[in-house]
Amino acid sequence: MKTYRIRKPKIVVIGGGTGLPVILKGLRSESADITAIVTVADDGGSSGTLRSSVNIAPPGDLRNVLVALSDMPQLYEDLFQYRFREEDEFLANHSVGNLIIAALSEMKGSTYDAIRLLSTFMHVEGNIYPASEEPLTLHALFEDGMTVSGESKIAKTRKKINHVYVTNTNNTDKPKAARKVIKAIEEADMIVLGPGSLYTSILPNLMVQEIGEAVSKTEAEVVYICNIMTQKGETEHFSDANHIQVLHQHLKTKFIDTVLVNTEKVPENYMDTKTYDEYLVQVIHDFKGLRDEGCRVISADFLELRNGGVFHDGEKVVEELFRLVFGAKY
């Protein structure tokens, strides 16, 4: 049951991957004015194939966000998320939703317009914007001076990352934020980053200069939801403070106000390492390091164990976000 208040807090969630929909589903169950800003730098799997074949922004993360904020019947959701089997030749591994987004993007001339139309069709509560209206390429410069281009290739390198940056995939123009993205950030009561892959889901959005500057300058509460597990080729051996240090180094300012940290221990040998092969060990805690970065720390049991995987408990996280937003703004 939704709780209605005098004014819905405006909450902007920035990221990508599988962590973002968990938080969005929780926010949707509350009375929030939601805007999701989604990375368009994914170049792997079905999204990567479609972005190169049809010349569109990658649809996968946008598809998952559409479903998270939609109230369409379960059968429609299952159809939208259905992925063809590997033996289905040229349709192999493509999801129906990705194909629909690709078709609408071609029909309307842009992924931005396709998502706006689908948001109406799917009864989406809130706004969904790609970070940029152009597909972006993510580049990583490693500590040894090596550079790798392509989001799907970065983690495979297994080297320590110095920094990442984005370029337009199809031209040499400077990457620009999509329509209404900056306005949404400027009008927000709260900006939420994550949970999600630090270098390949969160930073690609912030590396669009307009978005990074808007998040750095906002008067809204900026909250980072720290990952529970380290990720192979990205955050190996990272503490929670290391995540914040990387974000602050990329934007060259200490812009994170509050960090949500899970303190519940993941049971030993619980993880299904075949299904979740990118996750390594639980992120270690460095509360002094977080405070040195100027962050308020909220540590609690945010853990949800499901199907051999480790996730954030969306209800618990959203409950904490609402305490923060109403404490900060009202």
UniProtKB/TrEMBL annotation:
One of its GO terms (biological process) is regulation of cell shape. SUPFAM superfamilies: CofD-like. Keywords: Cytoplasm. The keyword Cytoplasm applies. Its main location: cytoplasm. Transmembrane segments: none annotated. One of its GO terms (cellular component) is cytoplasm. The keyword Transmembrane helix does not apply. It is found in: Cytoplasm. Coiled coil: none annotated. HAMAP family: Gluconeogen_factor. This is Putative gluconeogenesis factor. It comes from Vagococcus intermedius.
